[in-house]
Amino acid sequence: MSDTPTVFEKDFVYDKLGKRLSVSSNPEETQEETQATARKASIVPQTQTIDEEESSAVHPYPPHDYARANTELEVFPRDEPTSVEQSLEDVEEEEPPYVPPAFEDIDPQIPVVEPVPAETTTSVPQFTHPWTTPPFNIIERPTPTIHKAKATVKIVLSLSVVISLLVGYGLRLKIVKFGHYSFGMYGLLLVIDFVVQTIAASVNRHRVVKITKASNMTKGVQQLKDKAAGKEVPEAEQIQLPEVSIAVVGYREDEEAWIACLKSLQAQEFPIKHIIGVVDGNDGPDLAMADAFGKAFPDDQRLIVHLPVLLSVMYKEKYWETIKILGYPAPTRWQYVKMWFTQEPRPGQEVAHETAWNHVLNYLYTRSSLEGWSKYKGICFSQPHGHKRHAMFTSFMVGAYALGTKDAMLTTDSDTYVHPDAVTNLMCLLMSSPKMAGVTGDVRIWNKKDSFLALMSSLRYWFAFNVERACQSAFGCVGCLSGPLGLYRTSDLMSVLGPWILQSFLGKETTFGDDRHLSNRILSMGHKTGYTQLAMCDSDTPAGYVRWVKQQTRWSKSFFREAFWFPKSFAYHDAWLTVEMTKQFLYPMVLTATVIQMFYVPSFWTRPVIWLSTMFGVALIKSVYGVVCMRDPMHFLFGVYGFMYFFGLLPSKLFACFTVGITTWGTSARSKSEFARPESFYSRTTHVGHLVVWYMALSVGFGYFMASSFHNPAFWALGAIGLIPTGHAYSDVITGEAKYYYFVFRKWRRARRAQALNVDPEKA
């Protein structure tokens, strides 16, 4: 054995991972000095010699394998010490946390893009489509008419009732007074609204049950069940059921939720002709969603089709090209107002629609004929990213023409589980009257256990559908057939599809409110819409506060945009449609004005307590209806929803009213990778900045109210309360920034330690 000292006879300094950072080159240096040097760098010292058995615990070699150790551990001569900088290169670099720049617009919401022009529409020869007559059934019904005098009186009276109640509320008119307590116009408004809604909703519930039991749709489905069970059904008694296809669209959906949705659609009791999926995008994650579609179907029953262009863009380009060729001048502002009020088409519009329609149908016929689309039960289309309306347009055109769905089409979302009897119950109501053009069902929440907010949203959904929409259904004018569960007659859907895809607002393409505008267009033609509580589905709701605010803001924008889009609808339908729209439009403004006036023009100190108790008490009374209908005491919690409305939904409605022209989608995809994307401080402010203003206005107003009422300026400190919910709204952004700056601090501290070790080369 050589007399040369081996690597194990020297003093080493190791980091916590066991990696060597420096070698002592001074044989006179004591162990205490080595440990002192190590403490300066917060590094664990370890002294190894050939006599110590523990050496094998640090090194991957036996303590006596000197030759291998000297070779692989790269022993440094005593006169060439290892510098700290050289040794730090051996340390694994820590990945910094990704935090977007605070003042850049970096948002995980679905991007809204201008659809790509359809310059090259197809790579296959164009054929002329054979559909000189529609391939679907056209319902025979009398054409709705408007009696001008009757309609005028109805609209004027409806507006007068609502406006007088709201103005009286704003002026604090009192009907009965008991000292500081009184029953005013606000109380009267709430009582009338609650009584009418509950009575009408109850009538609709009983009517729907009666219609469903007597419907041929129910009997026909039962016959199919009997046949499947081996029972014989006499041929003379067999019922021919209408044709129904399902359109489901999505963007980067979670794969498990997407497949569960498709499985639920295949499990429908009612026979489904085709299931049409449209993926809103053709990038990598989008194609993964298209591939997942194939997993839900047998190989011989599904087809994946990649469209190079958007059918909607083809339609719009050909429409505007035809308008330009016809040479009609653009309407003036006054003509636009007249067109809005009377719903008369612009010059050349009918010709342009027909030309664009045939242009798209030629392409559809070419592709569908060559690829045999109609042979497959499930067909999934991927196309360039636009937004939901473009995807819906593709599914409707394919379902009605290329696949020839004769009677009805169901729309649903990619995160929705549709109950097995949902289509049956929807068809019962849709086919109950030729006047009925579209129906919707009860949308429930499957992730209500994710958070208390999700639970409150599930209760709100129940009341929104089983009270508000059920009430509207009693009058035949449901204002929004919900996207997760909406069923339309094919002929009525096709009659409004062209104008629907062309909608713009303030010169911009509309990117949300697709279901509401589609329902609005059907109502504007004088047709009826309905709701059945027997058809159910389970959908997703935001479990986080910020995503919920984004969703409510987006929905509120679509309501304010659509509320008075078609004045003709009010003339066609019952007065309740006018009352409902006017009330929902004005109520947030009046309520906000009342709150601001109450805090900043203080009177007696108990007034806010009385007012809040009244508002939440009414919500508690409403919850009784849910408890009675569902026999579930959980509905008593609906009274708590008043807090969510007051602190989250009310300011979001106001913000939506004044930013209705901002057309970004305002929601995020639901795949795991999309959920993980962070949001910048600037982007978060664009979504929740209005909440900050609202919280501070309330807290400062409350501080002023208390300071004035009790003549004590110390109450002004209550104005800081608004910072608490503000911090909650920015919590994840603040956490991300904190993690990043902590990483920077640790890196700076590590550099300082290395610099301290390098001061004295003899001791390094």
UniProtKB/TrEMBL annotation:
Organism: Heliocybe sulcata
Record localization: Cell membrane
InterPro entries reported in the protein's UniProt record: Nucleotide-diphossugar_trans (IPR029044)
Pfam families tied to this protein: Chitin_synth_2
GO biological process, one term: extracellular matrix assembly
TM regions (residue ranges): 151-171, 183-203, 609-628, 640-667, 687-707
Gene Ontology terms, MF aspect: hyaluronan synthase activity
Main subcellular localisation: membrane
Keywords: Cell membrane, Glycosyltransferase, Membrane, Transferase, Transmembrane, Transmembrane helix
Phylogenetic placement of the source organism: Eukaryota, Fungi, Dikarya, Basidiomycota, Agaricomycotina
SUPFAM superfamilies named among the record's database cross-references: Nucleotide-diphospho-sugar transferases (SSF53448)
Region Disordered: start-end pairs: 19-44
Name of the protein in its database record: Glycosyltransferase family 2 protein
DNA damage in keyword set: no
One Gene Ontology cellular component annotation held by this UniProt entry: plasma membrane
